[in-house]
Amino acid sequence: ADADIHFHEIRTGKTLLAKAVAGEAEVPFFFLSGSDFMEMYVGVGASRVRNLFKQAQQNSPCIIFIDEIDSIGRSRSGGSGGGESEQQQTLNQLLSEMDGMDTSKGLLILAATNRPEVLDPALLRPGRFDRRVVVDRPDLKGRVEILKVHAKNVALDETVDLHAIALATAGAVGSDLANMINEAAILAVKNGRAAVCQKDLFEAVEVVLVGKEKKDRVLSREERSIVSYHEVGHALVSALQKDAEPVQKITIVPRTMGALGYVLNVPEEEKYLQSKKELQAQMVVALAGRAAEEIVFDSVTTGASNDIEKATGIARAMITQYGMSEKFGLMGIAKQQDQYLSGRVVMDCGEATAAAVDDEVMRILKDAYEEAKRLLTENRDVMDQIAVFLIEKETITGKEFMQIFRKCKGIPEPEEHPEGEAQSGQLAGAPEQAGTEDVTDALENEGMQEVTGVPEHASTEAAADAQKQESTEAATDASENEKTK
Q1: Cα–Cα distance between 285 and 267 in angstroms, integer?
Q2: Is residue 440 part of a domain?
Q3: Which residues are catalytic, by number?
Q4: For residue 100, pLDDT beyond 70
Q5: How far apart are CA 44 and CA 37, in angstroms?
Q6: Which of 92, 107, 380, 466 lies deepest, with the highest CB count within 10 Å?
Q7: Which domain holds residue 321?
Q8: CB contact at 8 A, 288 and 376
Q9: Is the dihedral of CA 220, 221, 225, 231 positive or negative?
Q10: Among 232, 243, 253, which Cα is nearest to 381's?
Q11: 459: number of CA atoms within 13 Å, CB side?
Q12: Each residue of 262-296: pLDDT tens digit?
């Protein structure tokens, strides 16, 4: 008999994996949870273990799968309570049965847990659960394949690019991806289409990640303005930093999971390592929303609570785990516990060092916040114009955002890419809320010039350039006429 134990995060598909093994092997499959063995009466758990292995021997070759084995397999202590005694008897019986199995009958035992650190060492020694498989969240290739599996029975049109959806869903597990395909199919039916398009899939991604649009939550004019500047602050600082991820979408439509607005950033490629500059850029982007509020309204709101938590986590990890602090250097100050459950980090230092770490975290966050304020202050006119456009449209795509950004900064538009390729600031196949004409019209007509902080010298420079160009053309024409004569 062979025995494998699977270490998983929550919801990564441990039960499905075991069932897939049984399906491929085409043998009987015994599925039990660790808690199924435990009862209030002493001896019941051990009896159920004996019965399980007896049935397995009679139906061999077969597969036994024990889910959440930490319920019965956690480390034994010196406790003598009734529950403790029952758990120890059940574990002892399991160890005894595994040692006494007939290895020639093709019996495979699988178990799964997301708390491997609490398992009894006797359970993991060679001859028992000696082969360990860590199943993590799917990477980019894995997400593409999972999406293909769930989409094979769904009608898709020619615009669908599952690779783009997989790129936008880093960290999602199989159940999330299945839910996204299902939500996209529902959206297609609601809109009267026979096939799912790429726009449906992107909207489904947002439904799963941040909830449905909550259009009955009406914000006041002042709150809409604050949320708009907050989100534009995030997006603008992302565009101004080369180490930040490109903007996919900006919206101020409230969602059912509590967000009043958000910026969707989609990486151009999936990365497994992050540099110090990238982490610093993430902190600056996270704090840019609050910085925008302070610059424009000379006040701050509660809307930045999640941003502050995220930035603080990055700063603390840089110091305690990644050795990216000048003050502490390569000193390891924290260690990770419950890696497969919560990833909780525990400080491994004295009180004085912990206090010094807090001071260093505050310094790093202050530097990031000042950098965000500097970037937004220097680009105040750009922030004002994009914020007014967002207040009017409520949702703008990354492509629209970059068009306004380039127009305000005097950056020429990039050449058109072949159909199907991604453009800067816009992932291939992503839905567009409005065309180029809408952006241009809004900039020219909808009171953009009235926004406070928009410089007047822009029009003067444009007029000077036009006059200079006309003079050059006139001189060229005169020279050609002279040669003709």
Answers
A1: 14
A2: no
A3: 231
A4: yes
A5: 7
A6: 107
A7: 221-409
A8: yes
A9: positive
A10: 232
A11: 6
A12: 998 888 788 889 999 999 999 999 999 999 999 99
